[in-house]
Design brief:
There is one protein chain. By secondary structure, the protein is α/β, with parallel strands linked by helices. The protein folds into two domains: 132 residues, Rossmann fold (3-Layer(aba) Sandwich); 191 residues, Rossmann fold (3-Layer(aba) Sandwich), CATH 3.40.50. The chain is built from twelve helices and 13 strands. A seven-stranded parallel β-sheet has the order 8-7-6-9-10-11-12, sandwiched between helices. It has a six-stranded mixed β-sheet with strand order 2-1-3-4-5-13. Helix 1 runs parallel beside helix 12 and helix 4 crosses helix 6. InterPro entries: D-isomer_2_OHA_DH_cat_dom (IPR006139), D-isomer_DH_CS (IPR029753), D-isomer_DH_CS1 (IPR029752), D-isomer_DH_NAD-bd (IPR006140), D-LDH-like (IPR058205), NAD(P)-bd_dom_sf (IPR036291). It comes from Streptomyces cinerochromogenes. Its EC number is 1.1.1.28. Belongs to the D-isomer specific 2-hydroxyacid dehydrogenase family.
């Protein structure tokens, strides 16, 4: 049997192939495609029982129906998030769906801090200047983090890893989550209402999943509560931030810096080379015009450690499907034949 993987990055492919070869050897082949799965490409999966999807694939009712009609029975998502998959449609079509519920939380937490430090200390602007032999310090002044307040929205594995780093910087810790994390409490974190966190934090970092209740969690009201010189970092899901409200806030000259590794309309843009095209997404283009905004292309998870763990978990999900088993990674169990 040949297994088909969509949206595979060139640096990811060797790790994915290694993980599959280690378990399946010659029993099952792996075909890796750089293209993303959507309505136009779904037909390429015809005849493949197992499809490996990426976070920026589109798996709506139409795509899932095309997959099912082509013989697909299992979708293994190579990410923790799965808001791009219509789980109800998958269940109706008798498809099994699994995700990767855990991989190195340090990959994302460390990258979130890279964004925070870069915008606080104007690293990108400084690098651009020095490449042109401009060594002035004008406009590059940042702030010490020690003694300031970190607001961590979501204190699961990634949020807790972010919190430990903040504790190392000597920051005051505020948290918001539905369930308090004992590890964060042990570091001195105070859990407070979301409104207070936005109002008091000098740095706000988002680490919650994208759900109906968290969509546009950072909206105009939340942004209005934030300090004028606060830093906002989102390395979780783009839909957590209302981009229009963020643009209005930035146009008003508020926020010291914004670090975004995700964007609510990133599908069809992130992971692709758009350098020779006109950027038709006006909101993204406008975001990029602000010197205090740093946008990266959903790369926070992209370390050798995390990607290897994702590959191994994906192999395990495929094994479970072939054996008729379920696990904590299972989102939809296939209907019995």
């Amino acid at each position: 049997m040949e297994i088909l993987a969509y949206g595979v990055q060139s640096d990811e492919e060797p790790l994915l192939r290694e993980a599959f070869a280690k378990v399946f050897a010659d029993r099952h082949g792996l075909r890796c495609l750089g293209l993303f799965l959507d309505r136009d490409t779904a037909r390429t999966a015809h005849g493949h029982e197992v499809v490996l999807s990426s976070v920026n694939d589109t798996l709506d009712d139409e795509v899932l129906r095309a997959l099912a009609e082509g013989g697909t029975r299992m979708i293994a998502q190579r990410s923790t998030g799965y808001n791009n998959i219509d789980l109800g449609a998958a269940e109706d079509l008798g498809l099994s769906v699994a995700r990767v519920s855990f991989y190195s939380p340090y990959s994302v937490a460390e990258f979130a801090w890279a964004l925070a430090l870069a915008v606080n200390r104007r690293i990108v602007r400084a690098a651009h200047r020095t490449r042109e032999f401009d060594f002035r310090l004008d406009g590059l002044m940042g702030r010490d983090l020690r003694g300031r307040t970190a607001g961590v929205v979501g204190t699961g594995k990634i949020g807790a890893a972010f919190t430990r780093i903040a504790h190392g910087f000597g920051m005051r810790l505020l948290g918001w989550d539905l369930v308090e994390n004992p590890d964060c409490l042990a570091l001195g974190m105070e859990y407070v209402p979301r409104e207070r966190l936005f109002a008091e934090a000098d740095l706000v970092s988002l680490h919650v999943p994208l759900l109906p209740d968290t969509h546009h969690l950072v909206d105009a009201e939340a942004l209005a509560r934030m300090k004028d010189d606060a830093v906002l970092v989102n390395s979780s899901r783009g839909g957590l931030v209302d981009t229009d409200a963020l643009l209005e806030t930035l146009r008003a000259g508020r926020l010291t810096g914004v670090g975004l590794d995700v964007y609510e309309e990133e599908a069809g843009v992130f992971f692709l080379d758009k350098s020779l095209e006109v950027m038709t997404d006006e909101r993204l283009a406008r975001l990029m015009t602000f010197s205090n905004v740093l946008v990266t292309s959903h790369q926070a998870y992209f370390t050798r450690d995390a990607v290897a763990q994702i590959a191994q978990a994906t192999v395990g999900n495929v094994q479970d499907h072939l054996a008729g088993r379920t696990s904590d990674n299972t989102l939809v169990r296939a209907q019995a034949a």
